Amino acid sequence: MTRFIAAGMLFLTICFTVWINTVLADTLRATGDLGVVVERSTGSLLIVDQSERAAIGRIEGLGDLSHASVVFSPDQRFAFVFGRDGGLSKVDLLTQTVAGRVLQSGNAIGGAISDDGALVAVSNYEPGGVRVFDAETLEMVADIPTGSKTIGLVDAPARRFVFTLWEAGETWIADFSRDEPEITRIEGIGKNPYDALITADGRHYIAGLFGEDGLTALDLWQSPPLPRRILGGYGRGEKALPVYKMPHLEGWALAGERFVLPAVGRHEVLWVDARSLEETGRTKTHGQPVFAVSRPDGRQVWVNFAHPLNDTVQVIDTPSGEVIHSLKPGPAVLHIEFTPRGHEVWVSVRDAGRIDIYDTHSFEKLGEIAAETPSGIFFTARAHRTGL
Amino acid sequence: MRSAAMAFLLFALPAAAADLPPGRAAELERLVLQDCGSCHGLTLKGGLGPDIRAGTLAGTPPESLAHIVLQGVPGTPMPSWHPLLNEAEAQWIAEFLLKGGAP
């Protein structure tokens, strides 16, 4: 009899456990296919679901989000938002709340998260330098003044951050692998570096120059890395066009065996051999490129353009280097983000107040999402990629 | 006498307001906040480019600002907007900035 009661109790316990798990599974949500869209004028963030192709929430009160960018915690639950006004906000994608916020400077330009997810660094224009925060508490753990506007801040393997000085033309490597940060300064990067990127393997850091035709590459496997000028004089004495929007160098991967880079003040993108870093070709484009982003498989590169030709997106076929498709999503296309495996691309159309979603194989439009002056689109898959 | 009065009237009228076609002011306002804002910040308090809020610009003749807009500043990222804007539009932008973003 006792045995019957015990078996019955066990059965009921199992039933209860199954029931509670079912209920929880219906209310639990994973974050792997989520993302955020920066709404620059209203200082808000739209939380989006890639699979549903829909917005699922909005976070407000994040300050001046013009030129804002976002990185994610390794568990893809938290988005760290870097505002133009120096605001650093930590947004919980699950509870859709602001989990923390500090106003860490007067004027900031992007940030990065360390490879272990423990540190968040912010690049500042005013006062110029980098400040590093505990990702958990947002308490400041290091202040690195540079005396220069600081751009091109990325994470590098082994708890390092790399960034570049606009006025001074130097790149600094801040190593946080020990208790005290150790700084390596590399001079001779060039005149007015405007942005930089790190390759997806974390090996090469490449700074684009505004003050001269060319870029400077650092091999981070060298110690100390020696600056190497690449694509020097790519304009070859031609008069550059006025630049109404600086190109961006973040957020792309290898396109086959080559990189693609936007040319400054020219209607073209430049192809660079990934191994030799020599120029291998150029593709004429509709306007001055702002973002030239490879689809994750590297087969295509999608390009958007500076004002006033910013209503268009062109698709370049990597093997041939030819433009194979042009779209006109609408006024002021600001950003392009691929789904992690590249089957879809999301495009922000600022002045139309829309995110457009396209199939990258058929170029068919799959959907759209209303957003207030959308700029950057950031999917949580960035959490697992160096330099994003 | 009449022509003198006319001349005075013309002189007194802000050139920009008189010369802009309908709807252009709204486009220019968006251009200033969104596109100039790429470098000067959405609140115009500066970024890669300098602070261009009314308080900072106070005392600058609008003609000088209009000249900078049209010609750019050599040796800096400030481009010449001459290919995209005419003089009346540059003048409108200069006055818009000096008035602190009120059209």
TrEMBL record, chain A:
It holds the Pfam family Cytochrom_D1. This is Protein nirF.
From TrEMBL, chain B:
The keyword Cytoplasm does not apply. Keywords: Heme, Iron, Metal-binding, Signal. The keyword Glycosyltransferase does not apply. Residues 18-101 form the Cytochrome c domain. Residues 1-17 form the signal peptide. PROSITE patterns: CYTC. One of its GO terms (molecular function) is heme binding. InterPro entries: Cyt_c-like_dom, Cyt_c-like_dom_sf. This is Cytochrome c. It comes from Pelagibius litoralis.
